[in-house]
Amino acid sequence: MSEEDKSKKLEELLKLLKVHDGDLSKFTSQQRKDMNEYKFWKTQPVTKFDEVIKKEGPIDSSKRPEDIPDTPLPLLGDFEWCTVDVNDEKQLEDVYVLLNENYVEDKDSTFRFNYSRDFLNWGLKPPGWKEEWQVGVRVKETKRLVGFISAIPTNLQVRGNDVRSVEINFLCVHKKLRSKRLAPILIKEVTRRVNKYDIWQALHTGGVVLPSPVSSCRYAHRPLNWSKLYDVEFTALPANATKTQMIAKYTLPKTPISNIKLMEERHVDEAFELFNKYQQRFELRPNFDKEEFRHWILTREDVVYSYIIENDEGKVTDFVSFYSLPFTIINNPLYKDLGIGYMFYYASDADFGYDRFSAEGTERLRKRLNLLINDACILARNLKMDVFNALTSQDNALFLEDLKFGPGDGFLNFYLFNYRCFPITGGIKEDQTFDVEKRSNVGVVLL
């Protein structure tokens, strides 16, 4: 395969990482369609493109749970609704098979997401989860699961306002049924079920531009095992560079530089307090209680990893977490999988007591985050991860370039359903480069 072909292959593979072609400066001319072309979304309570927002808050606040039908919309005759009991191993296996065979795959069928059962248990069952919010569509005759969507409860803070909502995720329709327009019906059905609990807002993300993003962040990628990435044709050799040079460029120390260590149950109280104080700087953020924080952050082997740094007095001053979502490599004689780490939540007290954007506060935080995230990359590499991904959300712009994260080819858009909101900075400038000065005001991270 030529280097040009490898470059094209890389562009295709990046889409697997939720990196879709997206150019913030060209949304209007390239990705954004006329509102009338959004046959489904034009009927929903979402902010229209170019809508002048005068006040933040719910778009439609007139409905009550008793106004919502007790029965779902009818499906085509060959299909039936189901509630997926993810506590049942067989039903969880159905979700596992559907996602791993249909969620995302490159055109050559070389790489495929490998959602583990442990990952699904973590992502689908946080505190307060509802079985009836795990919505499926099955073939009547065979009972095969061919469609799925999940909602999980989340309390958001949107510029200081508490917004009781859900996160929508894992929307998946079998690849052979994409023409049946099951996705809009799945969205309507999970909305109906959530509305019955008197919840009217939702947060979701995607690479496709819909009406209307509240924020857009860019992906960045840090090779941890460049040699393997090259061997499996996940990355190309840049012009005027040798393999030896590329391997040397991305080589990390064998062990962390700081006294970082695995977060344990005994650290949760301090880390939770640190997290809440740190997150207050962001305009779109989760409002976790301690049980939710414990669920999402404490280490689960092969799923999520969290680490803390303590000062000389034993106080937790920093924590960092990342989750693992590998690819299966199909028909490769050398490798069966590709390890991928995703930046999750972190916090540091480095700039506490300073204005967030002051020169001194910024420099203190930049230095601390460079140490913290570099150690996270080392730990991820030692866990056999081959690439580390991060968005430009949170304060990530302070370390991305310094730590050799390369800008990805696409963007992740954040959407609030049934909620008007002024735009929130996503950590990128108009020319799409990392915005170290303004950074991002998006604090929430979705799987």
Brief write-up:
It is an enzyme of class 2 (transferase). The protein has 447 residues and is an alpha+beta fold. The protein contains ten helices and 19 strands.
Describe this structure in words.
The protein has 447 residues and is α+β, with helices and mostly antiparallel strands. It has 2 domains: 3-16 and 216-420, 3-Layer(aba) Sandwich (Aminopeptidase); 36-215, Gcn5-related N-acetyltransferase (GNAT) (Aminopeptidase), CATH 3.40.630. It contains 10 helices and 19 strands. The protein has helices at 3-14, 27-31, 89-102, 117-124, 182-195, 226-231, 243-250, 268-279, 290-297, 359-382; strands spanning 20-21, 57-58, 79-83, 111-113, 134-139, 145-158, 161-173, 201-206, 215-223, 261-262, 284-286, 304-310, 316-324, 327-329, 337-338, 340-348, 387-391, 406-417, 419-420. The longest helix has 24 residues, at 359-382. The model is unreliable at 15-30 (pLDDT under 50).
Topology:
Elements: H1 3-14, E1 20-21, H2 27-31, E2 57-58, E3 79-83, H3 89-102, E4 111-113, H4 117-124, E5 134-139, E6 145-158, E7 161-173, H5 182-195, E8 201-206, E9 215-223, H6 226-231, H7 243-250, E10 261-262, H8 268-279, E11 284-286, H9 290-297, E12 304-310, E13 316-324, E14 327-329, E15 337-338, E16 340-348, H10 359-382, E17 387-391, E18 406-417, E19 419-420
Parallel strand pairs: 7-8, 16-17
Antiparallel strand pairs: 1-18, 2-19, 3-5, 4-14, 5-6, 6-7, 6-11, 8-18, 9-17, 9-18, 10-12, 12-13, 13-16, 14-15
Organism: Kluyveromyces lactis (strain ATCC 8585 / CBS 2359 / DSM 70799 / NBRC 1267 / NRRL Y-1140 / WM37)
Protein name: Glycylpeptide N-tetradecanoyltransferase
Subcellular location: Cytoplasm
